[in-house]
């Protein structure tokens, strides 16, 4: 009896696990996904759970064994390009993709996108480098 319950629990866990797939599409900001740094990381998160994958050189990605049911936030962390986050709903093992924004109410769903996920960078990342101020002095003027 205990073995049967255990096997049923394992079966149920695998039955509720889904795969979420997508691709990073080239655009004016990114001519080819192969140009993304290898450190590029996609994270799929919900309260208490997080999945992470790196895209392939073709831009394809798959999150394996994702628990169906909750809504997830998909973020792309990349040093060279900025990506908008997406909301991924997985109720009843159906996958729906929505646009979302930082500080947006979670109950508010944005525009619905196609599935499998197609995501492109919104811009190239720009960084400002602050250099320390170094005072150069003339040795002769200070009497050395």
Set down the secondary structure blueprint.
Elements: H1 2-15, E1 17-24, E2 41-46, E3 49-53, E4 60-67, E5 71-77, E6 81-82, E7 86-89, E8 96-99, E9 112-113, E10 117-119, E11 123-124
Parallel strand pairs: 1-10
Antiparallel strand pairs: 1-4, 2-3, 2-5, 5-7, 6-11, 7-8, 8-9
Describe this structure in words.
The chain has 144 residues and is mainly β. It has a single domain (2-126), classed as Immunoglobulin-like. The protein contains 1 helix and 11 strands; from the N terminus they run αβββββββββββ. It has one helix at 2-15; strands at 17-24, 41-46, 49-53, 60-67, 71-77, 81-82, 86-89, 96-99, 112-113, 117-119, 123-124. The strands form 3 sheets. It has a 6-stranded antiparallel beta sheet, with no helix packed on it. β2 and β3 form a beta hairpin. The radius of gyration is 23 Å and the shape is elongated.
Quick summary of this structure?
With 144 residues, this protein is mainly beta. It is built from one helix and eleven strands. A hairpin with a 6-residue loop joins strand 7 (86-89) and strand 8.
